[in-house]
Design brief:
Largest sheet: 9 strands, mixed
Strand content: 25-35%
Number of strands: 9
Order of helices and strands: HHHEEHEEEEEEEH
Number of helices: 5
Shape: globular
Number of domains: 1
Helix content: 25-40%
Structural class: alpha+beta
CATH topology: Nuclear Transport Factor 2, Chain: A
Length: 205
């Protein structure tokens, strides 16, 4: 009888412990990659991820937070000329991107970084910046026009660590739109315009 009572008491203690665990704080879990979340910029690729997030969620503040004070945007060579500037700085990039994100009724941006990218060291005075070139694709629906890039469009992104080696914080310092091999507008024939990322942004600078 005593042994039976001890067994019952032991089972009740186990049940009580299980209930405490179930009702207490969640155990610590490792971070899970989340393509629909903004990242904390502790990795270089977080910059690329947050560009996608900012555009697809049309969150101007997220994009603006990526831009280094020394940020420069460079056009693809195919867009330079005819009054188009060769480059612009942070303020213009911020306002042009805000205009684009605000004007578009639909945005789908994809930067091909998820399968891994190669970062190249870029000497920058006492610092070392890092640059990578990746393919991109977008679909911007603005009014009755849908803007897409030519097949094979690329961009070069350069990042710098504004934090420390122990606590890195990567920001976008240069963005060079390399475009596609042949930028030909078909706007006259259809409601779809094949263009470059930079040219769409330039509509709002």
């Amino acid at each position: 009888m005593i042994n039976q009572m001890r067994s019952v008491a032991f089972l009740m203690a186990l049940l009580a412990a299980a209930l405490v665990l179930a009702c207490g704080d969640d155990p610590v879990k490792p971070p899970v990659a989340c393509s629909s979340c903004s990242q904390n910029l502790t990795h270089k690729t977080d910059v690329l991820s947050n560009i996608e997030y900012a555009y697809n969620r049309q969150q101007t503040n997220v994009y603006d937070a990526l831009l280094d004070d020394a940020f420069t945007f460079f056009y693809t060579e195919g867009d330079v000329g005819g009054g188009t500037v060769v480059q612009w700085g942070r303020d213009v990039e911020s306002s042009a991107t805000a205009g684009l994100l605000g004007a578009a009724s639909s945005i789908d941006l994809d930067i091909t970084w998820e399968d891994g990218v190669t970062w190249i060291e870029v000497p920058a005075g006492a610092e070392t910046w890092y640059s990578t070139t990746v393919f991109y694709h977008f679909l911007f629906k603005i009014g009755d026009t849908i803007y897409i890039p030519n097949s094979g469009a690329k961009a070069e992104f350069t990042v710098r660590n504004t934090g420390t080696d122990e606590k890195p914080h990567w920001m976008l310092v240069e963005f060079t739109d390399l475009g596609g091999p042949s930028l030909v507008s078909v706007l006259e024939r259809t409601s779809t315009s094949s263009t470059s990322w930079g040219k769409v942004k330039a509509l709002y600078r």
